[in-house]
Specification:
Layout lengths: L5 H7 L6 E4 L3 E5 L9 E5 L11 H20 L6 E5 L15 E6 L16 H18 L3
Antiparallel strand pairs: 1-2, 2-3, 3-5, 4-5
């Protein structure tokens, strides 16, 4: 698969970005299609397409930087009341750019953004069944 994304150009300095944070591993910049004013993307500088490819240590750093950006959003002129993190992994989840990226979305009352799911409460037996299946998959993926 082609590893190229627009984020590769941003990391390399070939495409413009309004940078918020940068270190050797991570870059944070303003989203050019913000959900709300102040919407920031946090990415690993390495071209990682999906969460399954993301090194756990780098993933932890991605979220630590996201936390710092969230605190900065609250302290800045964005002056938000809350923050959502969003990370889409795969087409069905809504991933459009195939380079892992964490959305840090500032929230204010009445901003119009929100989840529109219709939650339901499944029977406990269904939850137990799925929990057992997921536990089994975790044991296979991360043996003790």
């Amino acid at each position: 698969m082609d590893p190229y994304t627009i984020f590769a150009d941003i990391v390399a300095g070939r495409a413009a970005a309004s940078k918020v944070y940068e270190d050797a591993d991570v870059l944070a910049f303003m989203d050019i299609r913000p959900v709300t004013s102040g919407h920031v993307l946090v990415i690993p500088k390495s071209p990682v397409r999906s969460l399954s490819e993301l090194d756990p240590e780098l993933g932890g750093k991605l979220f630590r930087v996201g936390q710092q950006v969230a605190a900065a959003l609250r302290a800045s002129e964005v002056n938000c009341d809350g923050v959502n993190f969003f990370l889409a992994d795969g087409v069905t989840a809504g991933q459009e750019v195939f380079h892992v990226h964490l959305h840090v979305i500032p929230r204010t009352p009445g901003d119009g953004f929100g989840l529109r799911a219709r939650p339901r409460t499944p029977p406990r037996a269904d939850l137990d069944y799925l929990a057992a299946s997921i536990r089994g998959a975790l044991r296979r993926a991360v043996p003790e």
